[in-house]
Specification:
alpha+beta; Enolase-like, domain 1; binds flavin-adenine dinucleotide; 2 domains; Uridine Diphospho-n-acetylenolpyruvylglucosamine Reductase, domain 3; single chain
Length: 307
């Protein structure tokens, strides 16, 4: 291990015997395969380091992927936005492309932690950490994102709807696999998105609730073609509220419809009573507010006027 690793202040209290810096994806995957589940990927380290300190899990080896080439790009390919897993929250929030074609994601990324955290925390890490209210994961779920996962055996594509398993757990095996790409359809004419976040203060705080909405509408007719409503933390994983989505598909866009949609969403959510995040009753009331506000904002972007 590099002697410099021992000099890093955050390396105190962490019992790893190797810190590896691969220079290619192939090398990184081979390092993971050789260590047969005893290694762990580290990207920005903002989750891994506190987790190792808390002894949430153990890793004999850390494989640092932060210097892998071609993993931090944001580009449009045809109708899709394609992002590398090492894109940081600061990069996504600042990107013109993300602001214009995936506004909810830009807003979610801007809400993360503090500038210091946003500058190093990656979108890949946010997804793989599998937290139900993660500020990039929830909008990516509403945007119908899919991820590419690579291992020594090859690659697979997984829609985010099938990616999250439980709190802190996804279908990705963190000791053997690497998330290599995030892809979702770019929003265009007749579409809009919004990100709403309820927290006790603006920076460095756990969200009590987050809500990401993406809509497609026929503005001339005032009809909602379809809507995606993602919420957190109201279940063990970032949550798509399918009953509200079904209720809105084909509905006339009006304030009354948004109130009914918000009631439907609340009926499906059972947030836990939490000392940190508020009571179930309070958060159920606030689901109504965030869903209604999110839909109204996204529909206005899609060109609809609400009477
Ligand atoms: C002070 C503080 C404030 C925070 N505030 C927020 C907040 O407001 N909102 C929020 O959502 N989060 C917040 N977080 C959590 C954290 O910053 C995010 O989840 C972040 O996106 C994690 O990314 P990372 O690059 O640091 O991941 P890491 O810590 O490097 O890794 C996280 C997990 O993902 C795995 N991993 C990382 N990249 C890959 C990959 N490409 N392929 C496979 N596995 C991978 C790691 O093995 C690990 O299991 C905060 C954290 C701190 C310390």
């Amino acid at each position: 291990m590099s002697p410099a690793f021992h000099e890093l202040h955050w390396a105190r209290d962490i019992e790893v015997s190797e810190y590896l810096m691969p220079s290619s994806l192939e090398e990184a995957l081979a390092m993971l395969a050789q260590r047969q589940g005893k290694a762990r990927v580290i990207a920005g380290g903002t989750d891994v380091v506190p987790e190792l300190r808390r002894r949430d899990y153990q890793a004999e080896t850390l494989v640092d992927i932060s210097r892998l080439p071609d993993m931090d790009g944001i580009a449009q390919e045809g109708g899709d936005i394609v992002m590398g897993p090492l894109v940081t929250h600061a990069q996504a929030a600042d990107s013109d492309l993300i602001q214009k074609k995936a506004g909810a994601l830009a807003a979610g990324c801007l809400a993360v932690g503090s500038p210091q955290i946003r500058n190093v925390a990656t979108l890949g890490g946010n997804l793989v950490s599998g937290q139900p209210a993660a500020d990039a994961s929830v909008p990516l779920l509403a945007l119908e994102a899919q991820v590419t996962i690579a291992s020594g055996e090859g690659e697979r594509q997984v829609p985010l709807r099938e990616f999250f398993v439980s709190v802190g757990e996804t279908v990705l095996d963190p000791g053997r696999e690497i998330l290599t790409q995030i892809r979702f359809p770019a929003l265009g004419e007749g579409q809009g998105s919004s990100y709403q976040r309820l927290s006790k203060r603006k920076a460095l705080t756990l969200p009590m609730l987050v809500c990401a909405v993406v809509v497609s509408a026929d503005a001339a007719e005032g009809v909602i073609n379809n809507a995606a409503v993602a919420l957190g933390p109201v279940a063990p994983v970032p949550f798509r509220e399918s009953q509200t989505e079904a209720f809105l598909a084909g509905a006339k866009a009006s304030r009354e419809i948004l109130v009914q949609a918000a009631e439907t969403a609340t009926a499906q959510c059972t947030p836990r009573d939490s000392l940190l995040r508020g009571s179930c009753d309070y958060r159920q009331e606030m689901v109504k507010v965030l869903v209604r506000r999110g839909l109204a904002s996204a529909l206005r972007q899609a060109g609809c006027t609400l009477d």
